[in-house]
Here is the input.
Amino acid sequence: METKDNRSKSPWTFFTLTLALTWALWIPAGLVDHEQYGTLATILHYAGGVMPTLVALTLLFRTEDAEGWMDYARRLVDFRRIGLGWYAVIFLTVPLLTSFGLFLGGGGTSFDPLQNYLQSPLSLVPFALFMLLFGPLPEEMAWRGYALDRLQSQMNPFRSSLVLGLVWTVWHLPLFLIEGTYQHGLGIGSLPFWLYMLDKIPQSILMTWIYNSNKRSTLSAVLFHFMVNFSGEILDLTLQGEVVYIQLGGSWQPS
Here is the structure.
């Protein structure tokens, strides 16, 4: 019989709580009148974004001893777990895939966002910090920092990546209802919508490979996730470029 502690350690408990609590905040944020309740919608939006980490930390508190907490913390902050060559993989993979999207996609990239930032280079610092703190960091403290190990205790890395990528994709769905989000701008059911949804599983496979290759480094996942978001903001791939980008990411399955 499964004990209470075992249920708390289960990835399925984490996924259920994370989806339920996040959606309980994001769905109302998407349904309220933003002209009248815009501040409330913003609060609900950001509160939902930290739910995965809050759920992960709560479950850790219920199940882990001091050694387990130290392991969790070290994997998040210890940059020495990441091999020197792996920093190149983390920081260059997405820009390279984006470049292939540009050239193989028939000129499918706009450099306007990058040019705007180059006119005021210092503006990149607060922008990058904001992107790190409100996306990659709180998400990866949960998805890779907590859930991935628990999935890999039950199945192989590839299947774990597929499951995590699918849950991660579904988790984002209410964002398409919230005005002002990147996802809302894509539009539900549009081609950009489907490209966005398809991108998460290939990304999850790459992140599992990087995570496992660097002594279960959560920091490696945070940095890679950051590069995905950052590159997407400063290099605006068009639909042709996005298709090539996703095809390349999906066809390359690391050994």
